[in-house]
């Protein structure tokens, strides 16, 4: 092969390499493909349960900013978002998740996201929605609010992660004499920009949840 032909071949090879690299970077940033395509390269892990995933992955890497991920159903409802964020290294915020932890998480998802061995039990009164902080924190705030309203979240100045932090903002958030006029209730029921935001992965509060919140406010936040 002549020297000229060798130079032409080298230029062609370098050009193709550049195109492939640019194309690959674009897909990485935008994450347009179905997250399920990740699992074709992951072997489902038999026996891997939610408690193990929470212990090894969610608790050290996610729950400090997403306390709702303590709950299995909340994780399942957000599984596509979790997959996309972890795969693209946008989450965790403090840096990309280690490859072995990614593999563990994606293996669990590929296996069908099993919760584990669950013995059905009748819910106790403590698990039912009631006008007290413990119930509201578990059933409403922890599932639909605290993911953003926490000291490290998107709205740190309105921290809903503890009763003390909520109490500090009582003059802004609550009208104890007329709970239906509370700023918190007005924001939740805003017809244009309700909370949680309509484009978030969280469902809007239903009427029962709003009524219990009003009752809780009227009782003075017990």
What does this structure look like?
With 222 residues, this protein is mainly α. The protein has two domains: 69 residues, no CATH class; 90 residues, no CATH class. The protein has ten helices and no strands. The longest helix is centred in the N-terminal third of the chain and has 28 residues. The N terminus is likely disordered.
Question: What's a quick, concise take on this entry?
Answer:
The protein is mainly alpha-helical. It has helices at 3-30, 50-61, 72-77, 79-87, 99-110, 133-144, 163-168, 170-173, 183-188, 207-218. Helix 2 runs antiparallel to helix 5.
Q: Can you give the helix content as a percent range?
A: 40-55%
* N-C termini distance: 86 Å
Q: What is the number of beta strands?
A: 0
Query: Which quaternary structure do these chains form?
Result: single chain
Estimated structural class: mainly alpha
Which key terms come to mind for this protein?
single chain; 0% strand; 2 domains; disordered N terminus; 10 helices; 222 residues; mainly alpha; elongated
Can you lay out the helices and strands and say which pair or pack?
Elements: H1 3-30, H2 50-61, H3 72-77, H4 79-87, H5 99-110, H6 133-144, H7 163-168, H8 170-173, H9 183-188, H10 207-218
Helix pairs in contact: 2-5
């Amino acid at each position: 092969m002549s020297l000229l032909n060798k130079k032409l071949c080298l230029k062609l090879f370098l050009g193709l390499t550049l195109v492939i690299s640019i194309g690959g970077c674009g897909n990485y940033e935008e994450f347009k493909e179905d997250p399920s395509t990740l699992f074709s390269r992951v072997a489902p892990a038999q026996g891997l349960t939610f408690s193990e995933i929470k212990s090894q992955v969610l608790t050290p890497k996610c729950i400090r900013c997403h306390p709702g991920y303590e709950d299995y159903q909340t994780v399942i409802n957000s599984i596509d978002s979790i997959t996309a964020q972890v795969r693209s290294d946008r989450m965790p915020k403090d840096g990309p998740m280690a490859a072995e932890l990614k593999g563990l998480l994606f293996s669990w998802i590929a296996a069908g996201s099993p919760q584990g061995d669950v013995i059905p039990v009748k819910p106790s009164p403590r698990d039912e929605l009631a006008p007290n902080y413990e119930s509201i924190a578990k059933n409403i705030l922890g599932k639909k609010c605290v993911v953003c309203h926490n000291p490290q979240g998107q709205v740190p100045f309105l921290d809903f992660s503890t009763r003390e932090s909520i109490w500090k903002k009582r003059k802004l958030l609550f009208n104890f004499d007329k709970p239906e006029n509370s700023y918190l209730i007005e924001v939740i029921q805003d017809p244009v920009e309700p909370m949680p935001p309509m484009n978030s992965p969280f469902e809007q509060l239903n009427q029962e949840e709003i009524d219990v919140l009003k009752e809780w406010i009227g009782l003075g936040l017990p």
